[in-house]
Amino acid sequence: MGELAALFAPERVAVVGATDREGSVGRAITENLLADFEGTVVPVNPKRDEVLGRPCVASMKEADADLAVVVVPPSVAVEVVREAGESGVQHVVVITAGFGETGSDGAAREEELRSVAEEYDLNLVGPNSLGVLSTRRGMNATFGPDNALPGRMSFMSQSGAFITAVLDWANDQGIGFKDVVSLGNKAVLDEADFVSEWGDDPETDVIIGYLEGIEEGRKFIDTAREVTQETPVVLVKSGRTDAGAQAASSHTGTLAGSEQAYETGLDQAGVIRADSVQELFDAARVLESQPLPENDEVAIITNAGGPGVMSTDAVGDSRLGMASFSEETLDAFSESLPEEGNIYNPVDIVGDADNARFEEALDVALGDENVGCVLVLSCPTAVLDYEQLARDTVSLQEEHGKPVAACFMGGARVEAAADVLEEAGIPNYFDPARAVEGLDALVRFKEISRREYDDPTTFDVDREVAREILGRAVERDEPRMGVEAMDLLDAYGIPIPEGGIATDPTEALSLAEPIDGDVVMKIVSPDILHKSDIGGVRVGVPNEEVYDAYEDLVTRARNYQPDAEILGVQVQEMVDLDSGVETIVGMNRDPQFGPLMMFGLGGIFVEVLEDTTFRVAPVTETEADEMTGEINAAPLLRGARGRDPVDVDAVAETIQRLSQLVTDFPAILELDINPLVAMPGGAQAVDVRLTVDLDELDVEEPKEKTLTEPDQ
Amino acid sequence: MGELAALFAPERVAVVGATDREGSVGRAITENLLADFEGTVVPVNPKRDEVLGRPCVASMKEADADLAVVVVPPSVAVEVVREAGESGVQHVVVITAGFGETGSDGAAREEELRSVAEEYDLNLVGPNSLGVLSTRRGMNATFGPDNALPGRMSFMSQSGAFITAVLDWANDQGIGFKDVVSLGNKAVLDEADFVSEWGDDPETDVIIGYLEGIEEGRKFIDTAREVTQETPVVLVKSGRTDAGAQAASSHTGTLAGSEQAYETGLDQAGVIRADSVQELFDAARVLESQPLPENDEVAIITNAGGPGVMSTDAVGDSRLGMASFSEETLDAFSESLPEEGNIYNPVDIVGDADNARFEEALDVALGDENVGCVLVLSCPTAVLDYEQLARDTVSLQEEHGKPVAACFMGGARVEAAADVLEEAGIPNYFDPARAVEGLDALVRFKEISRREYDDPTTFDVDREVAREILGRAVERDEPRMGVEAMDLLDAYGIPIPEGGIATDPTEALSLAEPIDGDVVMKIVSPDILHKSDIGGVRVGVPNEEVYDAYEDLVTRARNYQPDAEILGVQVQEMVDLDSGVETIVGMNRDPQFGPLMMFGLGGIFVEVLEDTTFRVAPVTETEADEMTGEINAAPLLRGARGRDPVDVDAVAETIQRLSQLVTDFPAILELDINPLVAMPGGAQAVDVRLTVDLDELDVEEPKEKTLTEPDQ
């Protein structure tokens, strides 16, 4: 158990603001607590002697509680929390609303609350929370209408109303919980804290949640990574779509990070993300009750061919494969199944199958070591006793210890059988696709729990040079930088073409001379974004034309935009685009997750085809390798259609080095290397654009230890 | 009503093979028919005087029936069907199994059955069918355990077991049907026939089905197009995935067409394709009971912010948009909602909302002409009576005539309300995503029902020249053709570069001379597929080098593959690839749907990025235009990133002309124009490859009237 143990299993709970008043929140909570709590409930209310028959104390100081639930009006809530802190309570749940969710006065009040919590080192839930409940000791410290059934899922939600809906539904379905937390405004404790707590809780087998935002992305990733090596975390994070993000932002009042960052960050955190309530609970129920499969191959045993085909489609949509049976299995099926049957997967044991034939087929399939899990699929027939089939399924599942999903199709005929199955932790669905999705969640979690997270590589770089180059932006008071910052990449070991920036024609010539072959020349100006459009780029310039080309480029730029600041002309080695593939490596800084790295196909395809992939920095070698393999155009990099494969390791190293750069310098707000030309022998950054936070750079020294450790 | 009216509403049904024997199919059907049928049941069995108390006749000739249900053994089934035909019956349901599904003997028997049916012009269902039922006159001519409740959906299934499962489930859910057909082996009547029949049936509001294959693709498209202008058709077509297709093929024993052809064909047919059983019924229930929205904008009215955000995500996933309210609506919400609420969409009427506030908000939203449909979303609270909310929802839906979806979240608290809603045809879901998907199905069907199908354009082409060119393949006894068939494209008006095929160096030179600028030269040989790899392509050849280049190309080809048949060297005008976009236009012939046209991004991207789109030919102008706009790279064609837009009309015309060519010549099995270079001023086919069915070409004259009319 973690440090929040007493939040969920306190000895004495003080309800500050407890009251008998009908319809009040203070009464609802006190009643809920009094109903089943194994510990002591202490009403706190200076105006009353007793509440609901329990003696009342005047203040927290007299309560001697280890958990305080605060239901007083907002104007006095902060003071009450301070008293709680003074009384030595460590855990506080603030039900009271009227904080950050209500505008600037509320936000100020929430800030006060946070600082009081910090002063007294309080583990504070809320404010604006429905409360907390834990079935371990029967504590329902919420003002919702329902208590939860006991179970092994723990559930957090940023919406209190959603908790009331879920509990009503779950009680009906026989689904139970260990702990339930309404996160409220998350002034102190947030989702990462509960993931961490429940990760340490031997009574929590699955962590589920509904979130509209994540407070600190990197903290969440690092926490959840560790927890999900053992305990599955399944979350709905809403605001997935543009419309949803806008609604989330207006609901919680906080600036939403990009969906791209959430999608990437949640995946890196090992979270199974559900897109809907149905997906959330379908996955959670299976993860709570079924073992993980040894392999990803499923056997489908069915008495009906059509639904067998439908189920196979669902397998095709999932991470699962259709198991190929061993010779022994095929022999056994050949012997026991009628000729019209199908001994291959999906196994059709035919509509006249009785319970004995079904049981034997299941036993054979579960015994095949090529089979990781089994879907039991059945349509009602006159010769089949569904309840018996359910009992056989349950006992064979236990005997073989492999995960089993059930799709006993039907209505009234299925009810009793479904009860038997669900009692044993095998959810039954009418739709085979949902049963298969359950097995898919097991495979997904198996993959997550076996991930090995390496530390990011720390390359030997020249941080001082990088700092000096970024400093030029401050000197010029101009946040945007272009090719003039190519040396920034060089300082971090990212290969750039030979050349440099000349500030007069003679310098241009002396830069060009040592370069083998013709050169590329580009005007350098932060004020001219689309250089090609104004004739600001010259390709294939022989040495003898460099001098004139310099003057020509500068003249064109001046004519085009007389007030443009011109930093010079870049003279660069020609990069052979024909043998290479143009890629892009970029970063933009997300408010929740920090630097979000991007890799994709470059050139005009970046914008049109959006063939890109993302990771939250710092990016490890494994992650960088994954990125180069994830884009749709990955086969191009690896040598499709008889082309020479490019050096993907060099690309992956560039991603990591850029990751190190943007982690070292939080002042870099966004940066694109476009194109990074990936070639058979290496990779070269041909152009760069970045934006610097001038204020941030001014104050912040590069940190000595810059990389976030995975265990932080 | 269509010509199958008497199949579903006969006066007298003969059961050939009726019997009292316990557990037999003949008894089950007779019992089911006797249960509720309003007409007369005539058992036919020469060995019995009566069956289940009904007098039995010896043969069909004595039955005087208008529908025969055949449950005799397979050995006599064909003979019985012949007798039925002789007796003047028009409709026959063959329950008997042991036909095409059982191997070559069975297949021969099925062929016999088909020819008897043809001889007597019988509308024959099956063989290998569970039977047919219709609630109109209480006729259950199936051997399943359940009858259906009356309703306004008609349902066909290629799996009989799936029907038994669905009926058991639907009866439990209160979902009813008009007609239900187990299609069996589809020896005569197939899915298109029932779509057509139910399209004409005023008592069928929605057609649903489970299919593993479609017999005749083009017939199905043409039939369903017409029906879906009025009546929604929702289908699960399994075998979507590779695994599923394999399972379907082993289940039904028929060669499955490509999933690509099914996906394309079903969409062109106006079918709403469901991927799972849940999707099938969720869509069907809404389409059965709710009106179509006037516009695609939804208003969400909720008493809980979090679920409001989740629902907005579901809207973001759908075809729906979030409605922007009129000023009047916003004013009304401002007046009636508390300050913590949200007057914008999703409208948060806050957790303390009572029924009056909910009702008013719904009324306001439904009254806004910017709102096409409404999602009523609610979490249980102490101040809200769910049943009353359900009644209000139902009456407001009726009053405003706009579609409404409901997500009353919860369990036991929702039951009574859900009954009220479902009674009125408003399905209630725990998961807001499913409620939104229901509205999405309405919008999808609105789009389908408003489609205007144009006839394919018939271009003026030179069919005789085309025939002559294809004939060369027969002469050479070589099904594959390459650049030597460029004139085939020219004959159908598809622009090709200037040039031709030379068979000696002098001819090469005389082909090159009239061409402006340098030329491209390529070896022409059906035996050399990858010409570039062997140095068989020369780009940018000036006139003075053409003679030598000819000899060089031929020498290289001979060295590479001494036995290769060399048809000559192609001399072609250079096409400027820089200003153009390489695309591909292709066709392959699908066993079910016929010529499947493909359009996509060309070059190396075809294989790697698979940026392609498809249509079943003949392709109309509208469809060709859609194709050029559907690929991911479409913005490139239309001039992304400051490039000049290419002539997409020329591309669309090429697609149509190729569609006409492959429709005219069924002998063309596959054909790729790769690349078709799309340029600002037009499009040019630079290379072609095709495969010809030599036998087909030998026998078939091009048809006089080649285009399938949409109303066939």
Automatic annotation (TrEMBL), chains A, B:
SMART domains: CoA_binding (SM00881). The keyword Ligase applies. InterPro entries: Acyl-CoA_Synth/Transferase, ATP_grasp_subdomain_1, CoA-bd, Ligase_CoA_dom, NAD(P)-bd_dom_sf, Succ_CoA_lig_flav_dom, Succinyl-CoA_synth-like. Residues 7-99 form the CoA-binding domain. One of its GO terms (molecular function) is acetate-CoA ligase (ADP-forming) activity. Its EC number is 6.2.1.13. Keywords: ATP-binding, Ligase, Nucleotide-binding. The keyword Transport does not apply. It catalyses: acetate + ATP + CoA = acetyl-CoA + ADP + phosphate. This is acetate--CoA ligase (ADP-forming).
